Amino acid sequence: MSSEWPLWEVFIRGQHGLNHRHVGSLHAPDAEMAINNARDVYTRRNEGVSIWVVKSAEITASAPSEKGPLFDPSNSKVYRHPTFFDIPDEVGHM
Amino acid sequence: MYAQMVKTDAARVRSLEEMEPHERAFQERIDAGQKIEPKEWMPEGYRKTLVRQISQHAHSEIVGQLPEGNWITRAPTLERKAILLAKVQDEAGHGLYLYCAAETLGISRDQMYEQLHSGKAKYSSIFNYPTLTWADIGAIGWLVDGAAIMNQVPLQRCSYGPYARAMVRICKEESFHQRQGYDALMRMVKGTPAQKAMVQDALNRWWWPSLMMFGPSDDASVHSAQSMAWKIKQNSNDELRQKFVDQTVPQAKYLGLTIPDPDLKWNEEKGGHDFGEPDWEEFFNVIAGNGPCNAERLDARKKAWSDGAWFRDGLTAHAEKVADRRAAAKIAAE
Ligand SMILES: [Fe+2]
Ligand SMILES: [Fe+2]
Ligand SMILES: [Fe+2]
């Protein structure tokens, strides 16, 4: 043998109430070991209360070249922001 | 530095007008301070330079554990031992953050190890010096981690996203490294005359190799100019060395130590210290593999890799067995 251990992406919830956030990756033979290694590599100073790991090979990502078609359409929809609408002062807080 | 004399494959830095449209758009993004992320288009030279630099940096963190590891079992107190253990464990973590950043550029972990073990990839010259006394451990934290911080702080602004983010994590942890070293020395210089002499001796041996960490002057180097244009590098070697000297002189004074450089003196006009030239012949010798500990360090890494093979394979076999069992149970249940 001598095949490389698979690569895992590591996500950590820093505090209660926050989302898990991607912090990096590591190699491990299985998910359990990936969690153990993630504990040692990414939370040596209390940086987390929860860890997710997922095999890098199983992540589907949008292609950088699709950036325009995917995200440009929302640029023109300024009315999605509340500041698009002028509400008179007399109406009070809205 | 941790990455010394990284080559770029560039014969000269080309202007925007000379570039193909793809490359020009790329350079304009860098000039505008945007980060480059994995899988985005990048010039092959940019990718290769980053792989060289990041892997060299990672190897330095990993090999850098060896001189300090030498003293874990011999630390003077249990507290110092726990601190040193935590520091060395951090360095392992730094190596791992960096390997993972390099892997986003399309090189595998095993390829990087292979390059280290075969001597194709370098690591910082500083880790090829021996740690002879406990004072050396203090001196490494103070000077070697101190010099590393000088270099790593600007790297947090590097144009390649994964490298910059790894540097942010690393910089957060480095300041503990430098302080624990200085703290150990503060204690020793207040001890017996023999202890104080031991600290002076450590400074005498580590001063020049620490200055060499920044590499020879690169003001005339094409590679440096190209790295700077790509924002992989932000400051010249001489600039960082000057900052390091100016920062360290008062720290040595506080400890009551003498920096082993007869040419060291304050230059009012430039607002910094003048200092002597490191022995660059020694530096090139160490880089070429002929330093006092090169062979020992490389052998230790190769031995760790081959001694660990049965363990890596065992865990892989176990993972496969468990996965097969789970699949079989699933079929049986259906
Ligand atoms: Fe370091
Ligand atoms: Fe480090
Ligand atoms: Fe360090």
Task: Describe this structure as you would to a colleague.
The complex is a heterodimer of chains A (94) and B (334). Chain A contains two helices and three strands. By secondary structure, chain A is of the alpha+beta class. In chain A, a hairpin with a 6-residue loop joins strand 1 (7-13) and strand 2. The mean pLDDT of chain A is 92. Chain B has 334 residues and is mostly helical. In chain B, helix 4 runs antiparallel to helix 7 and helix 6 runs antiparallel to helix 7. The termini of chain B are far apart. The chains are: A alpha+beta (94), B mainly alpha (334). Chain A binds chain B through residues 1-5, 7, 24-27, 29-30, 33, 40-41, 44-45, 61, 63-64, and chain B through 37, 39-41, 86, 89-90, 93, 96-97, 100-101, 103, 108-110, 165-166, 173, 309, 312-313, 315-319, 322-323. Bound molecules: fe (ii) ion (3 copies). One fe (ii) ion (FE2) binds at residues 61, 64, 91, 145, 148 of chain B. Chain A: It comes from Shinella curvata. Chain A: It holds the Pfam family PaaB. Chain A: This is 1,2-phenylacetyl-CoA epoxidase subunit B. Chain B: Keywords: Oxidoreductase.
Structural key phrases:
heterodimer; A: 94 residues; alpha+beta; three-stranded antiparallel beta sheet; 2 helices; elongated; B: 334 residues; mainly alpha; two-stranded antiparallel ribbon; 13 helices; 2 strands; binds fe (ii) ion
Percent helix among the residues of chain B?
A: 55-70%
- Biggest contact: A-B, 20 and 29 residues
The total of helices of chain B stands at: 13
Ligand names: fe (ii) ion
Kindly state the mean pLDDT of chain A as a whole number? Answer: 92
**Shape, per Cα inertia axes of chain A:** elongated
Strand content of chain A: 15-25%
Structural class of chain B: mainly alpha
